[in-house]
């Protein structure tokens, strides 16, 4: 039986482990397949492999070609419409089929970027002519290595999308998985449109906004905000004349970076609809607690910017006489004109003094897991709690990302403002959660902050993969209810205990938790590998690596 693209990629990076679904594998990180946290990359720089549980490979066959007014964002929104925010958990999504020929490398980036919102381990595509065209444009055509699935490749799961049958889609507030056709939400007033951010990668998406709005003015009630992905994107837009076109249409051009996507500027008014082309719209992520953020394609965003309401972009020809534009991108990127400073030789780099402002703290030292755990439930939360709800984004919080002691004070502030005080009073404590706990972006700060406050155990019905892995990385034991009904039998404030925890953790996947407040026991299970068990016992990955004898 032949291999698919995901199997070939994993095999070429495999450091140890068995390439079987459910087994833990170690990957060499000269390149990366994952959307994991910064700390993972730091460990890779120190020579450590990336460990993941081998996922199932989900083959999604694409046929046809996207019709006018429909773009790559609608493809991933269709996946979210079908499967929701948990549909990709434990899976790599591999897109293949004849429809790929019409999707550029950046179109594929748009689709893959929001694979995290499906809960997927990662998303992969073959390396074909479209990838070569992208590398040629970047002056890196010589780096191209073709990669495709074998003709007799198979997949653990399969699905198919006819690109030609797709229509403009939009995700309602406040979940990427709450997707509906744009035509079913006409007339909803819009007060802000945000296109861009570091996670909205392509020149094409900005260029199509400029082409649709060019020669027209944004509706007077709409703030049209553009966050270029990078300085390179801004340079290319300017070369095309698109920057001036956007400004004349009423757009505000902001600096390159995350910006509005993570609530650093462009926070919308309370309860007023904001349409954004970013990947996530979890409650409060925009920087406004009572926000109303919808996710859509740049075509749908452009239509709303011009009409002041949610509008099916396919109606623009009849409403405003605007035909779907044929966007022609520059043959070469402007990146080559931007000089980059080469890194110092290692001997010189070792002499550089790290200068830190007073606002830059140090990572706390985390202790070992106690042999007998006795702790209070500091908070109980429901299903689909995102990392943005565990630790908010926005201008009020993000300036403290490098000072854990101050950052921790915002933990769960959108869910329960009394959590921090309870956690500090209790010290060692427990969190109880429903399904898909920790969905969304990696946000390892969403583990570090509650860990700093004394979190040692999270009991949930189920976890989002990246957050589950981050919990282990920082010495927090993540377990699941053996009987999900036991979730209803545990309350905030209950005192729980696990006797002989460290011994039991190393020898069994099932543990018994005593609810001392209710004089009852219930069972929980962990899915940790022996390596992760050692990591949790040591207090996290950093203490474990630090404890190794120097080579």
Features:
551 residues; alpha/beta; Aconitase, Domain 2; Aconitase, domain 3; Aconitase, domain 4; 3 domains; seven-stranded mixed beta sheet; seven-stranded mixed barrel; 19 helices; 19% strand; globular
Structure report:
This protein has 551 residues and is α/β, with parallel strands linked by helices. It has three domains: 5-165, 3-Layer(aba) Sandwich (Aconitase, Domain 2), CATH 3.40.1060; 169-313, Aconitase, domain 3 (2-Layer Sandwich), CATH 3.30.499; 373-547, Aconitase, domain 4 (Alpha-Beta Barrel). Helices cover 27% and strands 19% of the residues. It has helices spanning 5-13, 38-45, 72-83, 105-113, 129-137, 203-213, 231-240, 242-248, 298-307, 316-320, 346-349, 387-390, 404-407, 419-426, 445-452, 465-473, 501-507, 530-538, 541-547, and strands at 14-17, 24-27, 50-53, 56-63, 91-96, 122-124, 157-162, 169-171, 179-181, 192-196, 223-227, 252-253, 273-276, 292-296, 373-380, 429-433, 455-460, 477-481, 495-498, 510-515, 520-525. It has a seven-stranded mixed beta sheet, sandwiched between helices. The longest helix is centred in the first third of the chain and has 12 residues, at 72-83. It is globular.
- Tally of helical runs: 19
Overall mean pLDDT: 90
CATH superfamily of the largest domain: Aconitase, domain 4
Largest sheet: 7 strands, mixed
Uncertain segments are 31-36
Architecture of the largest domain in CATH? Answer: Alpha-Beta Barrel
What order do the strands of the largest sheet run in, or round the barrel if closed? 9-8-14-13-10-11-12
Shape: globular
The CATH topology label of the largest domain is Aconitase, domain 4
Provide the gyration radius in Å.
24 Å
Strand count: 21
Return the domain count.
Answer: 3
What is the CATH domain class of the largest domain?
Answer: Alpha Beta
Sheet/helix structural class: alpha/beta
Report helical residue fraction. 25-40%
What oligomeric assembly is this protein in?
Answer: single chain
